[in-house]
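Why do we care about 3D structure at all? Because function follows from shape, and shape follows, mostly, from sequence. That is the central idea of this module. The next example makes it concrete: a single protein chain, its amino acid sequence, and then its structure expressed as tokens.
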Amino acid sequence: MKRHLATLLALGALGAAQPSLAQQVPAPTVAEGHSILTVTGQGDADSAPDLAVFSAGVQSQASNAAEALADNSRNMAKVIAALKRSGIAEKDIQTSNLSINPVYSDPEQEAMRAARANGQPYVPLPPEQNVRRIVGYEVTNNVMVRQRDLKNFGKVIDTLVSAGATQVNGPNFQLENEKEAMDRARVASIKDARARAELYARASGLRIVRVLTIAEGGGYYRPQPMFRSVSMDVAAPPAPPPAPIQPGQLSLNSSVTVTYELAP
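And the structure:
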């Protein structure tokens, strides 16, 4: 017991002798009479996108799940084959959603339509007749596609519709490698922070002595125009090709907070 107690006391003394991490890394200090100024700088970098991401898929209905799935699978195979013929690599086609859901009847809606068609007033159905039942099944299969050749984007969309695609969402324009653009935005944010600091210092009759701390905020794309989802009826004639698509430019933003030491 004495030996155990002595070991604990020795460890306690050793722990007390070790400085904490906060003690090892002291907070920045400034000379007497100097001031601290913290500013936030913003920087932008514009780049032409080189990648368009969109989803395409097929929606099918049948009286039973097996028939709906079989029909959907046949049509989806045509859509995927059309994507590959358009030059989309297999690695750039990824299934994003496959769902099988029942389709229910709506007796009340059907009764209301029948009353309007016959020019009769609608009489609410009794509860025993207003029961929803499964009348079929709906299968949806969507793939996420990365289009790298933006010049052919409109042509690819038209090819998809001709191949049987009933749903297309997108595009979302991106940069495949955004590091170079983000670095330009970061440099611009540092310059912006310095310019603001010098402005405040001059207005206060002070000068910048040194940088104390630099903290980077999150970089992000500025909002892009939103594209609505488009559903096509398979039986309807295809839209006149090619679909006009304008990639425009992406604007990446960087934010940085810098603390300066100021002196008279």
